[in-house]
Amino acid sequence: MKALLLPALISYLLLGSRVLAFLAPFPFLYAAKRWSWKSAVASWCLGLVGIYLIFHLAYFSEIGGDYSLLLKSLTLALYASSSFLGLALAFLEKKSTRYEVISLLSVLVALIVGLLVFFLNFGGDLSSLWGQLNLWMQGVQKEFLLELKSQNPRMAQELGENSTLVVEAGLKLLPGFWLSLFLFSALINLMLAKRVFIFHGLFAKLPPFERLKISFGFVWVTIAVLVLVLGKNYLPQDQQSGWEWLIWLAYNALQFLILLYFFQGLAIASFFSERFLPPGWIRVAFFFFFLVSLYVLGPILVAVGFFDAWLDLRERFLKRGDGGSSQNSS
Q1: Mind listing the pLDDT tens digit for each residue in 138-150?
Q2: pLDDT tens per residue, range 27-83
């Protein structure tokens, strides 16, 4: 019984906590690996049906007011895709030894499942969906501007004057934002699984996180995306409409490409910190400082992760160490 109830319940509680929402796939990943696939899949189905039935009780029928159907459909889809991500990670773990391959394939499968659940619950009416999303985004923006007005009235006024453009841009960037969130969740759960299952012989094919290295092919994809993003301003006015869909795709792709290289930069930082920082409070203090300064160090890590495709800092360091040790032994 616990194998049926616990994964669904813990996953939903993690999603509801918001702060730990990125760990929602892990209960299903754990259940699939430590208990059985049948119980994990059954728990996923049970959780989905349970949330659907709860939302259709009289007490919850009007939750969300004007956006009732939208919010309930989003919640249902978010649970479905987040929990299914754990199942996909568990299944694909033996198919590849690369973090980014397992993560991207798992994310794509999970998002397809989430979109199917969303459209089935919403009714598949795309025009109504776009209208409700637009209204919801406007409501979210108004609440944000009210909070910002007390802290920075000038910025709030500037954003308010361009509110329509901000909402349109937010809606256009929403696919890349969701893809990035799920990619972040997938990578974090893979790192956690590598630690948790280390004594069970699972996830043994995956290298340590500090050895994470993104495939070189992503470099060319990133360069192509940057050319589209930066070059759109140089296109003639009459040709910009023809490239609009491709530029939209480039902006959304850029979000998760940045995240991929951020994780590679983080892996490089972890590699060198383990070799140069002594274990204990000094390393803890370093990572605390790192988290506090993330808004400054984040772009640096992305740049380091991207240019490491050519520099290969970790391999150079290891070869230099081997060369130095061989000279000393001779």
Answers
A1: 777 777 777 777 7
A2: 999 899 888 888 899 999 998 888 888 877 655 555 545 556 777 788 888 888 999
If asked whether residues 254 and 326 sit together in one domain, one would say: yes
Q: Is 292 left (phi over 0), alpha (psi -120 to 50) or beta?
A: alpha
The answer to whether residues 185 and 111 belong to one domain is yes
Is residue 211 assigned to a domain? Answer: no
Domain boundary among the residues 152, 172, 206 is at 206
Which token pair is 308?
A: 């490491």
How many structural domains compose the chain? 2
Provide the domain limits for residue 141: 1-206
Q: Encoding tokens for residue 85?
A: 């991500």
Rounded Cα gap, residues 88 and 107, in angstroms:
8
Exposed, middle or buried: residue 82 (CB in 10 Å: 0-12, 13-18, 19+)?
Answer: buried
DSSP states of 96-165: -S-HHHHHHHHHHHHHHHHHHHHHHHHTS-HHHHHHHHHHHHHHHHHHHHHHHHHH-HHHHHHHHHTHHH
Are residues 157 and 239 both part of a single domain?
A: no
**Residue 45's Cα: distance from chain center in Å?**
23
Report how far Cα 288 is from the mean position of its chain's Cα atoms: 22
